Amino acid sequence: MDGAERPLSKWKQPLLKLRDRLRPSGDVNLKRLQRKRALFALLTRRLWLIKFTLFLAGYLWMIYIPSPLWGRGTYIDENALQPAQVNTNWNWGDVHAADRHLEQLECIRDGNWTSEQRARWLKEEFGKHGVVSSTQRYSFSTSLTTIHGTNAYAVLASPRHSGTEAMIISASWLSRSGEGDGTINIRGVSTVLALAGFLKRYSYWAKDIVFVVSDGYLDGMQAWLGAYHGSSQSGLYAEPLQFTSGVIWTALNIDYPGHSFSHLGVFFEGLNGRLPNQDLINSFERIARYTAGVSVTVYDHLDPRAEPSANKAPWFLPQFIYNIPEVKGYLYQANNIVRHAKYQASGRGSGVHGLFHQFRIDAITLFAVPAMGPHGFHAIGRTIESTLRTMNNLLERLHASFFFYILPGPQRFLKIGLYLPSVILISVAMMFHGLSIWSNAGWVEETLPTEKESKVQSTTKWRRRRRPIISALCIMIATHTLGLIVFNIVTTPWFMKNPQALSPCMLVLGIATPLLFVRRVGTDVGSAPTFMVLKAFNLCLSSTVISIITLLNFSLAASLTLFLTPVVALSSPALSAQVRLIKYSAYASIAFAWLLFHQSLVDVVWSWQVLSVWLAPFICIVYTPLVLQAAIVCSLPC
Amino acid sequence: MLLGRRLAWPSTLLYLCLAALGSQSERFTEKLTINSLQDGKVASKFTFTTLLKGASPRDPQKLDGEDESQHYTLFPLALGQILREHGVTELHLTLNAGNWNYDRWGYPEETGVGTGAELWAWMGDGASKTVDERWKGLRNALAGLFCASLGSLDDLRTTSPAESFVPEGSLPRWDAPHQIRHASLPSEHVCTENLTPFLKLLPCKSLSGIASLLNPHRLFDADWHGMGVHVVWHEGEGVEVRLTFQAVLDPLRSLLGKKQDWSFQSLYDRTIHRGCPVAQSSEVVASLPTNAVYAIQPEPHLVERNLAVYDVNTADKPLNIRLIWPDPFTYPLEYHSDSVPFSVRRTLRGSSQAWGQLSVVITNHRSTEVKTLYLETMPWLVQFYLHTIQTRVNGVVNDGVLSNLTYIPSVPHSRPTTFQVLLTLPPKSTVEITMEVTKAFLRYTEHPPDAQRGWDLPPAVFTPVEVTKNGSYSPPLGGRIYSSTLLVDLATPDFSMPYNVIIFTCSVVAFSFGSIFNILTRKFVVLRFPPDNAL
């Protein structure tokens, strides 16, 4: 403070210079404004670089996600769980009981019993163990078929407790292997039956245990859960449940189709991108490893670093590169993440457990990966018993660990901060791109046409111009309305019954309709071209959609950055009308390409009508119109 | 040890003298009944009754004055002091664990089987301290006596359902009327710390007589167990204290032989070595199977219909009653109970944290019409929308089932709802009542430490009644039926992240304050750029 009056020493001069720079002489406010302007000018001039960097960083980040160096090891967050801390009682006698049930079930399978007969038999078997049991009939009518089925379930009331909480052990009649192509989950059902007799012998259950053998693959459990929670659904008739229990906190779905198994695979993705609390997966993983000595895998992918059978280089990679541990690890984790993204983005989840998440129940499927050995009923029984004990320990709902994560391996995970920014960076880049086009549309550089090539900066003058917001907005609204109409047509029974014939017509109609009203779009002299405003809006809306979807369903958002972002960002009109038309047709075909995948289309509509998976409406009402807007951008005159 | 043996004789003599003395004005009886149930479980009920002859409850109008001295021999003094201090005429306290399964186990011998703690008392009015003040004192005193969280039965849970909880004894005809206070706490757990003070109230503790079978290791492992303290005044007889302990044990759980056999040793891991010398009667009643082969040892003193009766005081010691079935047990596929007129299933549907639907399904098993009072004493956490109440009989909408509805709405953060309605259940039919409810949004400090668990809601109470001609209810024999308790999820903040929440809120506050303050205190002037600096 008092140093100002002394003679200046040499080392103080740079400091003073710095001070001058920071607090210049003259009008401080004016300087600040000038500084601000200079900064904005710099940013505006370098905007293309910023956008490019953001796009590049986002995509590179996405590629880096499967790296074995990224993420960390899983851990148990909830102290109450205490996994693998109990001595299990499941023994060879119980394995024998499961074998007996299996024999009877094989007779039932070979005897081609109806689902009604089967459910009645299951009900009686539960009853013989002293557990109250009942059956539930249901039918779903979708625009394609009507599905009938009968579930069997039993409620083991917890001793010494009021039964306000419950946990579920379930097995669907059809196994997930081949997504319900008719493979019967026969050992899964016999495990559930044997568990009913076994678990009843112990008094330490603080929660009711509900055993459900659901009919079909996904439909039975959807009907049962809907009836349990009193939610109604159009097209569904389900008998009310005769016995209920309390609030269900956790559920284990058992899928054991083969004769023996080598690994227990964990499937966890739920409907519409929901995930169960990670503590449940981690507890199961530790219990299987320490209590039963079974290795856990994610899905049915075997780790090539541990399993020689899976140690094969893919066709595109020479063996010596594949043998680098990091490369091997990367490919294995990438495989897992791509599978995860498929399940999550499709919104259909990866199995029966996915239906539970919509009712705030944390659930996973234990999938016994079919193999020639070495594990069987003994290992799976012990794993389930110990996992139930862990779930039984819960005093509160699972809430401590993560609900947003990616599991690249059974013992590694990425928390949200490690993967979410990739998509957010891309969506920010899109937003910047859109905003820059928007602001460019508002200005026109007034120079003589002849001087265009000479690039004389000093003679140009910027003039404001009008931006045709209304026509751009009208186009957007029209495309979304078209999407809604397409959605309503696609979900009608007559379309679903013969998609092969109707979807090409639909495709042509969808591509042709926008051309009709686009013809009417004219450009006023002196105002910005409509395509600029439309493109700006299209980019901003896409960016907003992507960043919102990121939190709800990361995989869907990531797929959008792959399939939507380039289309939307690169759309531009051409000078000649023919090129414009070709470009438009190409873009519009991308928008409606999904119509040509008949089987997937039927599946997606079925998921919407039975499971309320919002992928079908999302594609029709959000994705297609956004791409269509990009197509219209291409078709508009410059 | 030696000293103990030397003292044993004089103390026994003293005991006998006291017993003889006490017997003039006090009478202690004990009884154990054991029933085999349909699903292979065994229900046992211990009853210890002390009658204080000629005594009467304290008149609340004399609460300010000096009370008469309390000299008891067998009557529990700790309890007597509480009763007289607060002027309580009738008191019922039950602490239960588990859910009584009426369909499988039939009607319980002791009515109060609602999960958790339930306390209700009839008290005379007219004292200088109000009934509510005395109720508060009573529950705090009982909380101390029984080591239970009865202090939590506060205003948030207290109601006055006089028609469903009619006095079991008589009420003195004082100037001021009697009032009832009732509260239940479903999340209360019962365990050893409650049994120990319970045993202390018994004249023989758990040293001799039937009470020696009360082994906490076995009783608290039972599928259902509960204890009760009932104080009733019978006009012309006196004040009666009835201490009960009920347990439903599962002999099939431990035995590998899949047989329903039971004995004192297998059920309680104890036998009776000595009778209680002050007990005027001490009997064990075991129900015998009606349509199965069995053997019972030792030979009962008396067999009445299908009941085997033993007198503990005269039986050979150690007494270990055994009932043996030669055949293994098989579970029946259908369960039905004649003693319960209807079965009840109550659920709270909907997975939303803001609203839900209360659904009550009542199935009348009888071929006659049954009338019953349906009572909900719901804390304010769940509020009813009465206009959405809908009744279906066998799936068909029928509002004629409901009548005589009384409703005291809840007051947020204080009073619970009292909802009582008379149901007329048609013969052999299923009645479903549904009602929309809204779930409360709690203050931050109102959440319990285990916030993510949810809140336990008390059971609904059904009281079968007959309606007399003048419109009043007369409860027939039988009694209340409790539904199961419920758990409700309320919107819960993420308490695991207080640090993040603090950072976020502070940032938002600082940011908005900073910008507003900046604009408010700024002076706006026009600045002109020098022309060469224009962009």
From TrEMBL, chain A:
One GO cellular component term: GPI-anchor transamidase complex
Membrane-traversing stretches: 39-62, 418-438, 469-489, 501-518, 530-550, 587-608, 614-636
Keyword Cell wall biogenesis/degradation applies: no
GO biological process: attachment of GPI anchor to protein
Originating organism: Cyclocybe aegerita (Black poplar mushroom)
Name of the protein: Gaa1-domain-containing protein
PANTHER family associated with the record: GLYCOSYLPHOSPHATIDYLINOSITOL ANCHOR ATTACHMENT 1 PROTEIN (PTHR13304)
Top-rank taxon: Eukaryota
Annotated Pfam families: Gaa1
Alphabetical UniProt keywords: Membrane, Transmembrane, Transmembrane helix
InterPro entries: Gaa1 (IPR007246)
Keyword Membrane included in the entry's annotation: yes
From TrEMBL, chain B:
GO biological process: attachment of GPI anchor to protein
A single GO cellular-component term on record: GPI-anchor transamidase complex
Keyword Signal: yes
Coiled coil: none
Span of the signal peptide: 1-25
Keywords: Membrane, Signal, Transmembrane, Transmembrane helix
Membrane-crossing residue ranges in chain numbering: 499-520
Protein name: GPI transamidase component PIG-T
Originating species: Cyclocybe aegerita
Top-level taxonomy: Eukaryota, Fungi, Dikarya, Basidiomycota, Agaricomycotina
